[in-house]
Amino acid sequence: MVFRVKGSVAEEVISSVRTVHAFGVQGTLAQVYNGYLLKSHAIGISTAMWIGVCIAIILFTVYAAYALAFYFGTTLIISGELNAGTIVNVIFAILIGSFSLAILSPQLQGESIEEACGAAAKLYATIDRVPPIDAYSEDGIRPETVMGQLDLEDIQFNYPSRPTVPVLKGINLHFNAGKTTALVGSSGSGKSTLVALVERFYDPSSGIVKLDGRNVKDLNIKWLRSQIGLVSQEPTLFDATIWVSRRSFIDIAQPNTPQENVAHGLINTKYEDLSKEEKMKIIKEACIMSNADSFISKLPEGYETVVGERAILLSGGQKQRIAIARAIVSDPKILLLDEATSALDTQSEGIVQDALDKVAAGRTTITVAHRLSTIKDADTIYVMGEGLVIEEGTHNSLLNKPDGAYYKLVQAQKIREGEEVTTATEADDSESMTTDEKEPDDFIPLDREKTHQSVASQALEQRMKERQERHKRKYSMYQLFMRMLLLNRESWNRMIIGAIAAIMTGAIYPSYGIVFAFALDGFSQPDNHVKRIKGDRNALWLFIMSLIAIVTTMAQNWNFVAAATTLMARLRFNMFTSILRQDIEFFDEAEHSTGSLVSSLSDDPQKVNGLAGMILATLLQSLSTLVVGYIIGLSFTWKIGLVGIACTPLVILSGYIRLRVVVVKDKYNKKAHEESAQLACEAAGAIRTVASLTRERDCLHMYSRSLEKPLQVSNKTAVWSNMMYAFAQSVAFWVIAVVFWFGARLVSELEITSTEFFVGLMSTTFAAIQAGNIFQHAPDMSEAKEASEGIVRIFDSMPEIDAQSPEGEPVKRKETKGHIRFEGVHFRYPTRPGVRVLRDLNLDIKQGTYVALVGQSGCGKSTTIQLIERFYDPLAGRVTLDGKDISDLNVAQYRQLISLVSQEPTLYSGTVRFNILLGAIKPPEEVTQEEIEDACRNANILDFIESLPQKFETEVGGKGSQLSGGQKQRIAIARALLRDPKVLLLDEATSALDSSSEKLVQAALDQAAKGRTTIAIAHRLSTIQNADCIYFIKDGGVSESGTHDQLIAQKGDYYEFVQMQALSKKV
């Protein structure tokens, strides 16, 4: 359980690294992670002791059996039941077999077999679990025709994770076939829950959901979901192309294997088996309808552009438009729009809304909306509150109730409009004409802009070159070993004790050879009395040595396993902190995806056991046996010893060759498995989207295919690897044969006695076998080297923007005014060097003013916020705070002046209090309850928190899963306000709020903005109409600026945006 939670915490934090950097909580979250590490470390230390005891008992039993064998063998020989030759054969068989236990001992530690058993138990429990809603089931009715009539009768529902909190309380709703129905209401009222019930992500606690009069439980689950197009509040795209998947182009025309984002909407539909050309046609039509085609066509690779993990390379609006295209591409009978246009700018929203209005014809459409301009034409509007329907009607009928809830929501969203209202289509046409007319204006600044672009291109090329050099750096085995050794200083005492014990354990093996030789000599004595005396004496010596072995083996295993456990915990913690230290550019790289980093964080420290822990102990033990064995051999009979030593290099060489083969194999395997880990992480993180698209088997197919590559690599190298292993093992026995042959000749020529021969034979036998076993763990050593290189490379990776560096000019909070300027800023994302995002951007945001950035999705608004946060540095130009270039300021102190509320709020596993306190700039224990409550009150979340059973101590779940989108956003706002920032950045800060909450929060934000600089990105223009200055961003630059009234009077780009969002449209 501890190991699983530890991994989920890492995934949660790394996937939201921008929030981590914005609030400077790397240390806080690292300590949370460390808390789970300490728990697992304590378990590991306890386990180490029992491992040492168990292995020691096993080996003691084996070695004591030798003593018993010689004692009882002597008895059998004296009694005449067996001859000496038979006894010797049996003892030698036991001797050789016992080496297998020695080889197995590293695998008997808790980090191998025990964890494997624990992991297998969890895997089989998951595999054997029969879900109540089985996505793979072929059972259920598949009606030939669908009308789309949905009825929810007396629905009551509680989330399984919160069984005591009722979400829906006996609700009755009717969604007429072919009609558009809207659900509005406060956050947490149950709107999105209704969508989940229609999709059958859950079944109601009581009541019935019907489709065309049939209980949805009686319908085939895949068929049901294939009749529904869903666009969620937070769009999820997959790390693939928009249309053509270059990674699996051959599979595009094959059934059940579409891997492109828009075509995911065709799975399990009648369009699934169309030709590539036919698919492309309907996909392009869907993208045109969702207003996505315009920006897709401008991308360097068009529809073949890979969108990246979590579609990080696209803006929120661009992601949403592709998600809408995916939902409508299969022409579903039912369309569910859960805040489908919330992330779109006004112009895109108007165009998309017109498209959605058109595609809604002939199908049942359910729209969950906070932005009321998108649903005022709905056939029916249900107003929800506290799990019940409180009002029902059309837009106009509900507006005739001045005291009604809907009327109040509308009033909260009204915008001061201009004289006219244009349609979305007219606005789209106007934009095209405006773009054409502006072309001559580009002539004057052409030369200056070209110079900026040259500087920007050179800067970007230099960064990419430095990044490639960092990736090429190699480390020797010695360097890696010393790094691991220095990192594990606190375990040096354990390692020294363990090393001494391992050397003593290794020396016991050849020492047995001496006793064996004299014991065999005792068997050949003619006098039974002498046989008895020598047999008893030799058995006693063997028993004494077994007692020594139990002590040394236990000390060896206990200390090395404990040291390895400590090293793994330290590696994971240091690796986690080093990952969080990296700048945002690091996480944009494909090889540093969340899945890849979490996989490395979990697996690489475990693999380092090849340079520490039990494998190191085994190597020391084997080397000790090798050295002591040859010393004994040379001491008793130097000729036999020299023969054994002469043959040893051949054994070591064969093992070394195998090691090199395995190193190459593991390198390719690691690379291939990172892809499969990323696929699994991506699918699991977006499981609702996967379920709604019925992509379960598609994801399974992709995952299976991602495992084919490492399988092929493994099969290709396994032959050579195992040949080398077999050769190393056989060479050891060849050495024994040579020594036996040569020793027999020496005995026959009377150069040595039989006792000397057996001492030489036994000591060189032990030495040769252990020489072969040195490379028994070649795969582990190879994995350890590869893993250590990856870990050390992360340790040594120093970010260009280092939030933990003390360098930079100190920032004095009291003297900071908050005057932000952009001066000729040019910028391109390092992962998309061919796309210019900002082009000579100039902004002047004066102290204490409320400034809004407005423009189409992808125009550079969010990039501007990221540059202010200093997630990136401009390629040309500069960003200043109070006249000082922010790149000269101390990063951590600078970010303490800023609070960010992002478009998609991020919360972490923990309590409400914990998440809010992440915004504090002083230690959590110094923050008063009054300060926390004031921040929550200003964010309109205090009443909700107080209504929870455990109030501020309520667990929010992983990524805030126990809260609605609006509730998460308000907690994020409270977190931002807690630090009393000088600069407040609002990137669609109220996009997830219902109108009632939005009005209260906006009023609170307006109040909070006094005395501080506030920069807001907004698509919902009602939230920024009172801004001191509004900048309209277009094509990476400012096209116009002024107050709301000034820009309305100009009747330019901003005016068109207002007209398309005005509530009076078509009324």
Automatic annotation (TrEMBL):
Localization (cell): Membrane
Q: Which GO terms describe its molecular function?
A: ABC-type oligopeptide transporter activity; ATP binding; ATP hydrolysis activity
Q: Which GO terms describe its biological process?
A: oligopeptide export from mitochondrion
Query: Which residue ranges does the record assign to the ABC transporter domain?
Result: 150-411, 820-1060
Q: Which part of the chain is the ABC transmembrane type-1 domain? A: 7-108, 496-783
* A Pfam match: ABC_tran
Entry keywords, A to Z: ATP-binding, Membrane, Nucleotide-binding, Transmembrane, Transmembrane helix, Transport
| CC terms in the record's Gene Ontology section | mitochondrial inner membrane
Q: How does it sit in the membrane?
A: Multi-pass membrane protein
Output the InterPro entries linked to this UniProt entry. AAA+_ATPase, ABC1_TM_dom, ABC1_TM_sf, ABC_transporter-like_ATP-bd, ABC_transporter-like_CS, P-loop_NTPase, Type_1_exporter
The family line of this record is: Belongs to the ABC transporter superfamily. ABCB family. Multidrug resistance exporter (TC 3.A.1.201) subfamily.
This chain's protein is named Related to Leptomycin B resistance protein pmd1
UniProt organism field = Armillaria ostoyae
